[in-house]
Design the sequence.
């Protein structure tokens, strides 16, 4: 482990998620895409939804468009039915992930298929490079049993949704920003290491317990509901948990460094392309 210490990343900043409402009134926590953190190239938005109050989620996300980016839904608890205007549909079950490349445009709905109990998970928006913004829509619906779990006996239990952890590769493939998406559970008082590609944007969002990131001379402890944004340089992140353990998502991706024109569910490169997107949507071209 010592060999990699020199390349360990520090936490650059910590951002608190903010209460928000979206869709037909779903209560959620907006972590990226809010006043304190507009975006984190190539990531445009991160929402956590977590409630056992049906009134917080039942209204769901009725028909709405997307163009120019990808939406990634990771379900921890509960079930969500999705369907679009091109005949695609499916049921997201606990532990499943859907990587949807909206490309040139889809109109879809995302509706809870349960009337009570806990609904929990994340939606992440990932930008597409200019050359791929008008690509054909594509779905990768990944069932829970296809997501490998690395349990190396060091107190870290890592679900690999995308990218690699050690020799284990996640099932999501062919994504422009070469994403890493890990769900990491850390046992009480355990320590470990996760590798991230040097130069790629990386963040961790803690959703259970408290996690400490960085080497001992420059570590920060991150509370539940906080996002740690890491420095760009370095190829590893040191991880530790206190006496209650921790669980967080660790996400990384290649920054696009392109101009961003954004209006609600349309994310393009120029204001003219946004006007075109609105016009195409209103005239039924999605
Ligand atoms: Co959507």
Sequence:
């Amino acid at each position: 482990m010592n060999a990699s210490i020199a390349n360990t990343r520090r936490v650059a900043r910590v951002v608190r998620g903010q209460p928000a409402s979206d869709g037909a009134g779903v209560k959620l926590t907006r972590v990226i895409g809010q006043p304190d953190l507009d975006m984190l190239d190539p990531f445009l938005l991160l929402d956590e939804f977590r409630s056992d109050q049906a009134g917080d989620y039942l209204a769901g996300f009725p028909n709405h468009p997307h163009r120019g980016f990808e939406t990634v839904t990771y379900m921890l608890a509960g079930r969500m039915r999705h369907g679009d205007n091109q005949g695609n549909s499916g049921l997201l079950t606990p532990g499943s992930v859907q990587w949807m490349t909206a490309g040139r445009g889809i109109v879809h709905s995302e509706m809870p298929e349960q009337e009570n109990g806990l609904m929990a998970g994340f939606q992440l928006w990932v930008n597409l490079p200019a050359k791929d913004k008008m690509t054909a829509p594509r779905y990768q619906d990944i069932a829970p049993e296809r997501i490998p779990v690395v349990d190396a006996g060091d107190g870290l239990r890592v679900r690999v949704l995308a990218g690699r952890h050690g020799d284990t590769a996640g099932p999501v493939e062919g994504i422009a920003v070469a994403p890493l998406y890990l769900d990491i559970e850390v046992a009480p008082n355990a320590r470990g290491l996760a590798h991230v590609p040097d130069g790629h944007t990386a963040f961790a969002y803690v959703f259970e317990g408290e996690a400490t990131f960085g080497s001992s001379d420059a570590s920060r402890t991150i509370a539940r509901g906080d996002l740690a944004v890491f420095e760009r340089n370095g190829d590893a992140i040191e991880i530790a948990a206190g006496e209650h353990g921790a669980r967080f998502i660790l996400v990384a991706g290649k920054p696009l460094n392109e101009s961003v024109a954004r209006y609600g569910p349309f994310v393009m490169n120029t204001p003219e392309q946004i006007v075109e997107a609105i016009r195409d949507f209103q005239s039924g071209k999605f």
About this structure: The CA atoms of residues 68 and 133 lie 4 Å apart. The chain is about 5% helix and 50% strand. The first helix runs from residue 2 to 5.
